[in-house]
UniProtKB/TrEMBL annotation:
InterPro entries documented for this protein: Aldolase_TIM, Indglycph_syn_Halo_TrpC, Indole-3-glycerol_P_synth, Indole-3-glycerol_P_synth_dom, Indole-3-GlycerolPSynthase_CS, RibuloseP-bd_barrel
Family: Belongs to the TrpC family.
UniProt superkingdom: Archaea
Pathway the protein contributes to: Amino-acid biosynthesis; L-tryptophan biosynthesis; L-tryptophan from chorismate: step 4/5
EC number(s) stated in the UniProt entry for this protein: 4.1.1.48
Class of enzymatic activity (EC top level): lyase
Annotated NCBIfam families: Indglycph_syn_Halo_TrpC
A GO biological-process term: L-tryptophan biosynthetic process
Region (Disordered): 247-276
Protein name according to UniProt: Indole-3-glycerol phosphate synthase
Record lineage: Archaea, Methanobacteriati, Methanobacteriota, Stenosarchaea group, Halobacteria
Keyword set, alphabetical order: Amino-acid biosynthesis, Aromatic amino acid biosynthesis, Decarboxylase, Lyase, Tryptophan biosynthesis
Catalytic activity: 1-(2-carboxyphenylamino)-1-deoxy-D-ribulose 5-phosphate + H(+) = (1S,2R)-1-C-(indol-3-yl)glycerol 3-phosphate + CO2 + H2O
Length: 276
């Protein structure tokens, strides 16, 4: 385990409860037949949608209040908005998530579902089946290769989250094929989209690259895509209001911009047409 003395108090608390849950143990070993995440991204691209992992995130340490709607209805709304995949928080104390929610959502939709939690020990992998699990490089430290193997042995696809180039190197050394660059600094809980822009150029081409956190608008989505994101993970901006409309705006970010460009080119062309 890495030294976590520099983490924000909320994150220290998240990790302390994750360790308590890991110590509880006691569930049977999970075996997953996963829905293919890369194929879901490719289908979205082929359909003209930005591949978006939309996150069911009832609350968080940086959110005021909590969203009490049925998470299954929210998840279905995100898929209706074009989400290629979903992320479901299962962390109960700080994010209002649960394994029961994930099970219900995964049963209701046909897209891949990422389990978003703070896994620090192998026993936590057996809490619930999902198509993808998250491993956060900073929190698992030297245990990353062993946890990656343990997750894959159970059938999970693994998204390894990094925040800087050193963590990226550790993820690549461990054999990660899906890497998420988190724009949220877990030491200060501040978000800066430049984080992704500085780490993305170092990511090998054969790795599927996800931009995580702080993506609040179609312009942000385009910015992350221009910097090399194969997919985007978005929580707060989708959960704030109409989840279907919010997801749609992000998945259509590139198509809508090219339509706007075409329209403005047509408008500019009109005077030329009349003068000839
Ligand atoms: O979101 C938080 O407040 C948070 C606080 C402490 C640790 C982790 C946190 N978020 C985890 C996430 O990975 C995000 O939920 C996810 O990337 C979506 O971010 P956003 O689109 O900014 O909600």
């Amino acid at each position: 385990m890495e030294d976590d003395s520099a983490l924000a108090p909320a994150v220290e608390s998240i990790l302390a409860t994750a360790r308590e849950r890991a110590a509880e143990g006691g569930t049977d070993r999970v075996a997953v037949d996963p829905r293919d995440l890369r194929a879901a991204f490719d289908r979205a691209e082929a359909d003209g949608r930005v591949p978006v992992i939309a996150e069911v995130k009832p609350t968080s340490p940086t959110t005021e209040g909590s969203r009490e709607d049925d998470p299954v209805a929210l998840a279905e709304g995100m898929v209706a908005g074009g989400a290629a995949a979903l992320s479901v928080l299962t962390e109960p104390e700080h994010f209002g998530g649960s394994v029961d929610t994930l099970e219900r959502v995964r049963e209701a939709v046909d897209v891949p579902v990422l389990r978003k939690d703070f896994v620090v020990a192998e026993s936590q992998l057996d809490a619930v089946a999902s198509d993808v699990v998250l491993l956060i490089a900073r929190f698992v430290g030297d245990d990353l290769p062993a946890l990656l193997d343990a997750a894959r042995d159970r059938g999970f696809q693994v998204l390894v989250e990094v925040h800087d180039r050193a963590e990226l190197a550790a993820a690549i050394d461990a054999g990660a094929t899906f890497v998420g660059v988190n724009n949220r600094d877990l030491a200060k809980l501040e978000v800066d989209l430049e984080t992704f822009e500085s780490v993305a150029p170092e990511v090998p081409d054969d790795v599927t690259l996800v931009a995580e956190s702080g993506i609040g608008s179609p312009a942000d989505a385009r910015r992350m895509r221009a910097a090399g994101a194969d997919a985007l993970l978005v929580g707060s901006a989708i959960m704030d209001g109409d989840v279907t409309a919010n997801t749609h705006a992000l998945t259509r970010a590139e198509a809508d911009e090219s339509e706007e460009t075409d329209e403005s080119e047509e408008t500019e062309a009109d005077p030329t047409e009349t003068s000839t």
